[in-house]
Specification:
- With about 325 residues, the protein is α/β, with parallel strands linked by helices.
- The protein has 2 domains: about 170 residues, 3-Layer(aba) Sandwich (Rossmann fold); about 80 residues.
- It contains 11 helices and 13 strands.
- The strands form 2 sheets. A 9-stranded mixed β-sheet has the order 3-4-2-5-1-6-7-8-13, sandwiched between helices. The chain has a 4-stranded parallel β-sheet with strand order 10-9-11-12, sandwiched between helices.
- The longest helix is centred in the N-terminal third of the chain and has 23 residues.
- It is globular.
- The relative contact order is 0.16.
Length: about 325
């Protein structure tokens, strides 16, 4: 499902007409957060969440944190609700035994980097992870979920989209007002290239009341030569156009692009259409790392994927926050 276009434009008639419902939505979020004191699992809980609905770069950030904590000798386990999967949990993800349909595409992708759990009950899942040896917990999303007491809360925002029109759902993209979210956050990560970062600071800098970290998603160097490669690119992520722009930046010749909904199942009909169109254009099918884990096994060798990793502009800001969190 695509976000309405007016979410990311200056407030107009549609946003103002829905604004009262946005106020109701924000009030419900505020009441839910105030209703319960989060459980303490006995180890640090690092939450990577957002204020916006939709993709902001949380998964690459979680992967980066997994690697950073591992470098410190800390065994961190990821907790996820497993969006798009059927597992109720608590279930430890096994990348060789589970499918994206069972555990969700993001948990399956992250499980290649360390222990990942899916579960609808955050507290029960946290307890299972700690019992299995977790020395820290990485809460994938859950910034608006009060079930667990958070030691460090990192809000991730897309520097290009910013906080949209500043209104709450359904009048805008926000799960809660920016001021309320900043009051509970410890760190803000804005993701995007330098020009987008400058525009974000101009538009939203005064609303950011916590230390800010910048990041950019860069293609992982795998030795693949993309220059001049004719590609049919598809993506079912929050902002597919970013993936397409990255491929063009690497020199790929995109003869066709297909934007799917975030987490959209790759049905036989969709794959057959992609294969037919690619054959007609003499093109190689290419997708994101996250979409690739949703492919049927017999498709894995027929589709190229482009992995990306988070690079931080101010890694010392993140390292200082982690040092405080870990004590």
């Amino acid at each position: 499902m695509r976000a309405p276009g007016f979410w990311h434009r200056p407030p107009g008639l549609a946003a103002w007409a829905l604004a009262p419902l946005g106020v109701v939505y924000a009030a419900a979020t505020r009441r839910r957060l105030a209703a319960a004191e989060g459980a303490d699992p006995g180890v640090p809980v690092i939450c990577v969440g957002n204020i916006n609905a939709g993709g902001t770069g949380k998964t690459p950030m979680v992967i980066a944190l997994m690697q950073r904590l591992a470098d410190r000798g800390v065994t961190a386990h990821v907790l996820s609700r497993g969006h798009g999967g059927t597992a109720e949990g608590p279930l430890r993800v096994n990348e060789r035994a589970h499918s994206a349909a069972e555990v969700g595409d993001e948990p399956l992708l992250m499980s290649a980097f360390g222990p990942v759990w899916v579960g609808r009950d955050r507290v029960a899942t946290a307890r299972a992870a700690v019992a299995a040896g977790a020395q820290a917990l990485l809460l994938d999303d859950g910034f608006q979920n009060p079930a667990l007491r958070k030691t460090l809360s990192i809000v991730v925002v897309d520097a290009v989209a910013g906080f949209g029109n500043g209104f709450c759902i359904p009048a805008g993209p926000l799960r809660e007002p920016v001021k309320a979210g900043m009051a509970r956050a410890d760190l803000l990560l804005s993701v995007g290239p330098p020009r987008a970062q400058a525009a974000f600071r101009e538009a939203w800098g005064r609303a950011v009341s916590v230390p800010q970290l910048t990041g950019v998603l860069e293609p992982l160097q795998t030795g693949m030569d993309w220059e001049g490669l004719r590609c049919l690119a598809f993506a079912g992520i929050g902002h597919p156009e970013k993936f397409f722009a990255t491929l063009r930046g690497l020199g790929a010749d995109l003869v066709q692009t297909v934007a799917l909904s975030d987490h959209q199942p790759l049905t036989a009909a969709i794959l057959a259409r992609l294969e037919r169109d690619a054959a007609a254009a003499g093109a190689q099918i290419v997708t994101t790392e996250k979409d690739a884990v949703r492919l049927p096994q017999d498709w894995r060798r027929r589709v190229l994927s482009l992995p990306v990793r988070m690079r931080f502009g101010e890694p010392e800001v993140l390292d200082a926050a982690l040092d405080r969190t870990l004590g």
